[in-house]
UniProtKB/TrEMBL annotation:
Residues 26-449 form the Amidase domain. Its EC number is 3.5.1.4. It is an enzyme of class 3 (hydrolase). This is amidase. It comes from Gordonia hydrophobica. The lineage of its organism: Bacteria, Bacillati, Actinomycetota, Actinomycetes, Mycobacteriales. It comes from the Bacteria.
Amino acid sequence: MADELLKKTAVEVGELIRTKQVSPVDVTRSLLDHAHALNDTVNAYVSFRDDAAMAEAEKAEKEIAAGEHRGPLHGVPMALKDNLYVAGEVTTMSSKIHGDFVSKDDASVVTKLRDAGIVLTGKLNMHEYAWGIDNNSPHFGPVHNPWNVDKVPGGSSGGSGAAVASDMTFISLGTDTAGSIRIPSSACGLAGLKPTHGRVAKFGCYPLAWSLDHIGPMAKTVEDAAVMLQAIAGFDHRDPTSVDVPVGDYRAALGGDPKGLVIGVEEDYYFRDVDSDVERLVRARIDDLVSRGATVKKVSIPALKYSEWTELATSLSEASAIHHRDLETRAEDFGADIRFLFYLGELFSSVDYLQAQQARRQIKREFSAALADVDVLIAPTLPVMAPDIGSAVADLNGNPVDLVDNFIRFTGPSNLTGLPAMTVPGGLNNGLPVGVQIVGKAFDEATVLKVGRFIEESDPMQGQRAPVGA
């Protein structure tokens, strides 16, 4: 019974808790037992909150018994990426430098999760300071992909992706600066949503690059992602990038059918140099939507050719500014990979940075023009499959290519523009998940989620689950 319970979605287990068919105490105990048992294999958690979690579960049970139900996530246990602050508890950023850092405040999203009645089970592994995509941590060890433990889970939110895919948490949050929600969600077979920049407040999230950072859900289903976005969205004056706009009812927006949907396809960038099996699966999902009444319109975004340089010039410059003092005084305490990148970031001049922002504005203008005539853009999330842990290259139709460059190539543009972007599973290739990316208009997460649900309804995964945790 416990195994079957843990396979359920956050919404499903929340409903069982609401109707008192299961107790949040029993659910939390089962999840913690499962997570502890699997952690040596997956290495998703860096710390557990067993006693605190059980106390929160008992509180949720008493509130629900008293008729004080807070919503669909009340009593649902979940773990958090370890760059989101929990007041009075250690948040490491998967680093040596912040290995004993304790915040006095909860992050904005943690406050909102507490208001929703979530039970926090622990903190999840990540790439050091969120600046990397393979989640091979020199301080906490590599996270293993539950679909194949020899493969990377994607990053930087790899612990979140692996934990959800292996039922070590019902749902989680990731942070995304160049794709760090969508990359591991794609590699681990999840629904992962990067909301519009400013939709979810980032107070209490350790920054990587101020103008590119986002927080969003990583979930088993689109419905779970919609419910989580509902819980965490909203303005917070403590985050200068937070935008005070109405929060929609994202779960209620799901439904309908694809008839009349207009899909934009940008061939020159998003379908160039793509693994042939990835392309086949993504185009199959588009064809399925067309068979159900959608139409396809080709769009052109020429400025995308500048996006990789623009993303790196922006993210590396901002990240190096954040870590400049530690780079001067204790560089040896950084992992070798990110130490190199932070040094590289200090080589960009102010002219380079400002030119990157000019290119960024052009990219944003062209995306806005392209989206004016379509509802969403659809593309591959990743152009290549997840490689073995420790590899710096990926395979692209028989040719070795740089892993970092290719993992962020299709996700980075949505960080530059701030537009909402989601990945959903599009099928399996040699036993590993392939993600389909949906990009929408600013603050129109409802449409992005709806299209994600349309793809999900076609059951591209054919009911298959990650072998580890199944």
